[in-house]
């Protein structure tokens, strides 16, 4: 699977380890930065992941920032992106099964082991495609104020 990963300055160390981990599992990983612990603006990286999904360069995106919240909020501003801020394996599974999330946002304060467990589930879980979930997602996609 083609997967993109991006972080702000808080997630650089975890990102490098996750890239190696996911590559060993056979995934093609696109590193969209940042690669420095100097302060950067997280929205730039969140928007980039969304754009790469919309360009069909990647199928899923992984975002990491301090809390994971900022990246999630910014990512969801990109049309067609359904980013979920995830804290555990159950949320990872349900975000894919019911919400067809295509981007995951994680906190850099989470342990690397927990991140790996969450990502394994997020990546392998597929959307159910049940009509009730499709109708709910269409409501979200069609809402503009």
Give a brief outline of the structure.
This protein has six helices and five strands. By secondary structure, it is α/β, with parallel strands linked by helices.
What can you tell me about this protein's structure?
By secondary structure, this protein is of the alpha/beta class. The chain has a single domain, classed as Ribose 5-phosphate Isomerase B, Chain: A (3-Layer(aba) Sandwich). 46% of the residues lie in helices and 17% in strands. The protein is built from six helices and five strands; from the N terminus they run E-H-E-H-E-H-E-H-E-H-H. The protein has a five-stranded parallel beta sheet with strand order 2-1-3-5-4, with helices on both faces. Helix 2 crosses helix 3 (69-75) and helix 4 (89-97) runs parallel beside helix 5 (112-124). The longest helix is centred in the N-terminal third of the chain and has 13 residues, at 12-24.
Strand order of the largest sheet: 2-1-3-5-4
In total, the number of strands is: 5
* The named CATH superfamily: Sugar-phosphate isomerase, RpiB/LacA/LacB
Mean pLDDT: 97
Ends: how far apart? 35 Å
Shape: globular
- Radius of gyration equals 14 Å
Secondary structure category: alpha/beta
Count of individual helical segments: 6
Question: How many structural domains can be distinguished in the coordinates?
Answer: 1
Order of helices and strands: EHEHEHEHEHH
Strand content: 15-25%
Q: What is CATH's topology name?
A: Ribose 5-phosphate Isomerase B, Chain: A
Main CATH class: Alpha Beta
Main beta sheet strand tally, sense and closure: 5 strands, parallel
Ranges where pLDDT stays below 50 over 5 or more residues in a row are none
CATH architecture descriptor name: 3-Layer(aba) Sandwich
The percent range for helix content is 40-55%
């Amino acid at each position: 699977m083609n997967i993109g990963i991006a972080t702000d300055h808080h997630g650089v160390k975890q990102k490098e380890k996750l890239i190696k981990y996911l590559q060993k599992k056979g995934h093609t990983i696109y590193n969209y930065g940042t690669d420095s612990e100097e302060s950067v603006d997280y929205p730039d990286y969140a928007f980039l992941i969304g754009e790469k999904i919309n360009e069909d360069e990647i199928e899923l995106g992984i975002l990491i920032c301090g809390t994971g919240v900022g990246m999630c909020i910014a990512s969801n501003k990109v049309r067609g992106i359904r980013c979920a801020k995830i804290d555990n394996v159950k949320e990872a599974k349900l975000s894919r099964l019911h919400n067809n999330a295509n981007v995951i946002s994680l906190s850099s304060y989470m342990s690397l082991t927990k991140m790996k467990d969450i990502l394994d589930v997020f990546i392998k879980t597929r959307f159910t495609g049940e009509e009730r979930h499709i109708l709910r997602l269409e409501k979200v996609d069609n809402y503009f104020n």
